[in-house]
TrEMBL record:
Family of this protein: Belongs to the protein-tyrosine phosphatase family. Non-receptor class myotubularin subfamily.
Superkingdom as given in the UniProt entry: Eukaryota
Coiled coil residues, start to end: none
Domain Myotubularin phosphatase: 205-643
Protein name, entry field: Myotubularin-related protein 12
Biased composition (Gly residues): 1-13
Low complexity compositional bias, start-end: 686-698
Alphabetical list of InterPro entries matching this protein: MTMR12-like_C, MTMR12_PTP, Myotubularin, Myotubularin-like_Pase_dom, PH-like_dom_sf, Prot-tyrosine_phosphatase-like
PANTHER family, A to Z: MYOTUBULARIN-RELATED, MYOTUBULARIN-RELATED PROTEIN 12
Major location category of this protein: cytoplasm
Compositional bias annotation for Polar residues: 562-572
Length: 754
């Protein structure tokens, strides 16, 4: 018996009975070691990657329906990943090409992607950390991309089992030094190779010309200027070397408090209004220091309040919005819904899906972020008012809200190049602490907050509701979220541009003193072949403005679990969208005495929001103009592709967004070929034969037929569903009679309901 799976890290849940029995004797396994050695898959190492430890005769437990089977192979740990090399992994059919990542394989886990490690001791699951006195018979790894791996070590030699378990725990849980990240080993080993370049037209915002170009694109160069006062990071290590400030602002104001209290430009709307951000001045108790701060802020206010800036609206995100602990707690609960150890656990939790989903508050946090961005958009669009976002360091919630506003209001940010440039500008150059927020160095769990993942989830809500407005797909967003944990790209592995530049030195790297070339995640050819990259491009993207009322209604996916909460009155958030009288006295003086003009105005926020929101949704959308999401109850949904893609029980055979996209691509390919045959497009694409017949219902070249896909595509093909009861059998006693069932319908998921 391989050992039983237990609750997905939640603790306290009743462990299901073992679902797999091995009839193979240990001596039979060791007898066949020589035979299987010839069939072992070769371990492919990246440049600079080193093998640390390995163990043979490890069984990877694979869920197949209501049972498990064991795949025998070798488990290895390198300084880049944990990998399982199976002896008899089934080969895919030639026409079923999966969405393969060239860097991280199906059975690979990068060390930074490991979330929790559990061991099974006498069929009891315990968290593993530090030095172990006793080693488990089964290893369970929960990943940050929500994969769950089960490895049985019962037939592994004792010394090998100890080495592999200790090695995995040490290299995934122990604190690290920045320069010991694999990122630098890879860059140093590949220093003679030609560095990969980012995707064409992606602006990196690491030069003064990049910022000036963005000012010109948004027509903000009349009121704002790009400055180089922080060149060489001589003023502030937190800020980028170049950024944009109001044109009349003296450059010495930037250096006075190391960039604090200075309005920094984010983006300009076509009506001349701008979105700004500011890191708040540190709170002081000394009255003399407070007075100095007040005088400085009052001077800044006079600069940005006089013509041509007119009115400025201030959003204090540190006190009037979400807190980072709120986000951390919500996601910690939310992710447990998808870290499923086995099929029995899936169906046991299915009956309380709604209550668990609601108690996590993750969807409510997404809704609040979208509503905040709509509030800011209303100020810019309707009231023609500049908006100033204020946060302690302006590197977390400021990045989130400003980016969402730009996605909603700037169609350029809904193209692939524009979106990538937006991430570079607001998150990378903006100083979001990716190293701390992703806990790449394993130095503080308290600092680990998925702010960027929250942003991607918010963008996905927009992509789902308005597909023709985006040049990229949900698959693009999903693989971008996965790239957070691949340490060969520098994009998401530093806290600031200054940290990146100072880390480029070669001390302690023991390599020739040639310049290091760190890859950027935007060169998708590093991870995917051209054929796979087509799944990142939205075939329904509207390149020119079109008013099509038929696309107003969102497409609802059939799914075993309803992906949104029932339509109930959402939690009312406090009316603290803008400054209130109870706001901290230092922050309240941020814009001087004239802030009192804005305090009374905040009472009108709810009415203005509703009028603006309803007015936009009553019109046909302009996909190259302002774009607002629906935020009512069921409209904010679970990002199914990212969170459910590894759970076979959650698949929709022959359906889902992936199968739909494949069918659409097939139709478009058929139309293209017909146009060529009719002479409308005489130029043939490379490799396309004009005489080739396209079978009806076939997908595009390189992709399987939609009938062979499921909602797990492109991350998995159609899998055999597990046998499932009409109602979870483990819940019969708790359900009671028919009358009780009727009263608890909000906890029961109707498998046929959308």
């Amino acid at each position: 018996m391989l050992g039983k799976g237990v609750g997905g890290g939640g603790g306290g849940s009743r462990a299901p009975k073992p679902s797999f029995v091995s009839y193979v004797r240990p001596e039979e396994i060791h007898t066949n070691e020589k035979e299987t050695a010839e069939k072992e898959v070769t371990l492919h190492l990246l440049p600079g990657e080193q093998l640390l430890c390995e163990a043979s005769t490890v069984l990877k437990c694979v869920q197949e329906g209501s049972c498990q089977r064991g795949v025998c192979g070798k488990l290895v740990c390198t300084d880049f990943k944990i990998a399982f090399l199976g002896d008899d992994e089934p080969a895919l059919e030639s026409d079923e090409t999966q969405f393969k990542n060239k860097v991280v394989g199906e059975n690979d886990i990068t060390l930074h992607c490991v979330d929790q490690i559990y061991g099974v001791f006498d069929e009891k699951k315990k968290t593993l950390f530090g030095q172990l006195k006793k080693y488990p018979e089964k290893l369970i790894i929960h990943c940050k991309d929500l994969r769950v791996f089960h490895f049985c070590l019962r037939y592994t030699k004792e010394e090998e089992a100890k080495r592999i378990v200790s090695g995995i725990i040490h290299h995934t849980q122990s604190p690290k030094r920045l320069k010991r990240l694999f990122l630098f080993s890879y860059a140093a080993a590949a220093h003679n190779n030609t560095p990969a370049s980012p995707q064409k037209h992606t602006v990196m915002f690491d030069t003064l010309e990049d910022w000036r170009g963005e000012l010109e694109r948004t027509r903000g160069n009349m009121k704002y200027k790009a400055v180089s006062v922080n060149e060489g990071y001589r003023v502030c290590e937190r800020l980028p070397a170049y950024f944009v400030v109001p044109a009349p602002l003296p450059e010495d104001s930037v250096s006075r408090f190391q960039g604090h209290g200075v309005p920094i430009w984010c983006w300009s709307y076509h009506n001349g209004c701008a979105l700004l951000k500011m890191s708040a001045l540190p709170k002081e108790q000394d009255e003399a220091v407070l007075q100095t701060h007040r005088s400085f802020l009052d001077g800044v206010y006079r600069v940005i309040h006089r013509p041509p800036y007119e009115m400025v609206r201030t959003e204090d995100l540190s006190s009037n919005f979400l807190s980072l602990p709120d986000i951390q707690t919500a996601y910690s609960k939310f992710k447990q819904l998808f870290l499923i150890d086995n099929s029995a656990e899936f169906w046991d939790t299915d009956i309380k899906w709604f209550s668990l989903l609601e108690s996590s508050s993750w969807l409510d946090i997404i809704r609040r972020c979208l509503k905040k961005a709509i509030e800011v958009a209303e100020c810019l669009d309707v009231q023609s008012t500049n908006v100033l976002l204020v946060e302690e360091n302006a590197s977390d919630l400021c990045c989130l809200v400003s980016s969402l506003v730009q996605v909603m209001m700037d169609p350029h940010c809904r193209t692939r190049a524009g979106f990538q440039s937006l991430v570079q500008k607001e998150w990378v150059a903006g100083g979001h602490c990716f190293l701390d927020r992703c806990n790449h160095l394993r130095q503080s769990d308290k600092e680990e907050v998925p702010v960027f993942l929250l942003f991607l989830d918010c963008v996905w809500q927009l992509v789902r509701q308005h597909p023709p407005a985006f040049e990229f797909t949900e698959t693009y967003l999903t693989v971008l979220s996965d790239s957070l944990y691949i340490p060969i790209f520098s994009t998401f592995f530093f806290n600031s541009p200054h940290q990146k530049e100072t880390s480029m030195g070669r001390e302690d790297l023991y390599v020739p003193s040639a310049p290091l070339h760190l890859l950027t995640v935007w060169d998708w050819s590093v991870q995917f072949e051209p054929e796979a990259q087509t799944l990142l491009q939205n075939p329904l993207y509207v390149e020119k403005p079109k008013l099509d009322k038929s696309q107003r209604k969102g497409t609802h996916l059939k799914h075993q679990r309803q992906l949104s909460l029932p339509l109930t009155q959402s939690k009312s958030s406090p009316k603290r969208g803008f400054f209130r009288e109870e706001t901290d006295h230092l922050i309240k003086n941020l814009l001087g005495k004239r802030i009192s003009k804005l305090i009374n105005y905040s009472d009108e926020l709810q009415d203005n929001f509703r009028e603006f929101y309803d007015s936009w949704h009553s019109r046909a959308p302009d996909y190259h103009g302002l774009l607002l999401p629906h935020v009512e109850g069921p409209e904010v949904r679970v990002w199914a592709q990212r969170y459910l893609r590894w759970i076979p029980e959650a698949q929709i055979p022959g359906g889902g967004a992936g199968a739909l996209a494949s069918s659409l691509l097939g139709v478009m390919e058929e139309v293209r070929r017909l146009q060529e045959r009719l002479g409308e497009r005489p130029q043939q694409l490379p490799g396309a034969g004009a005489e080739v017949e396209v079978e009806a219902g076939a997908g595009p070249p390189g992709l399987p037929r939609s009938a062979r896909l499921s909602s797990l595509f492109p991350f998995a093909l159609l899998q055999r569903p597990s046998a499932k009861p009409l109602l979870p059998t483990s819940g019969w006693k708790a359900l009671g009679g028919e009358d009780d069932l009727a009263t608890r319908e909000d906890e029961f998921v109707d498998l046929g309901e959308v």
